[in-house]
Amino acid sequence: MTSVLFVCHSNAVCSPIAEALLKHLAADRYQAISAGVQPTDIDPLALAALQQLGVSTEGLYGKGLDSVEERYFDIVISLCEQAEDVARAIPANQFMAWHFEDAQCCSRPQAAKVVHEIFERIKLLVLVQDRKGKPLW
Fold this sequence. Notes:
Layout: E1 2-8, H1 14-26, E2 30-36, H2 44-52, E3 73-78, H3 81-88, E4 92-97, H4 108-131
Parallel strand pairs: 1-2, 1-3, 3-4
C-alpha cells in the first residue's frame, strides 16, 4: 500500500480535501493522511463540498505535523507555498508540490472549485502511480 501525506499550512481546506478524495478514489491501494504546519479546524464549506459529491468526511479533522512525526512516506505532497519547505524535510521516496491557495473557502462555489481542482490532480496521481512499472500497451 502506498502511503501519501498531504501537507498545507493550516490543514483546513486543501490537504484534508486531498486526503478524503484519495481515500474515496483508491483506499484499497493508498493510505492517505493530511497534516498542517499550523493546523486549524477544517473549513465547513470544504466538508460540505466533499459531502455533496458523496465523499465521506468521517474521521477528517485538522491535525499538525506532530501527528506524523517519525513516519516515512512513499509520497509527500505540499499543497501550498507556505508549507513547501517543511514538507520537503519529511522523509519520503518522492516529493511533489501542488500549489493551491490555502485559505478558508468563502463560498460554496469556491469550495466546489477547490474540490474539483484537487480531484483532477488526485485522479492523475493515481493513474500515474498505478501505471509505474507496467507496460502501456
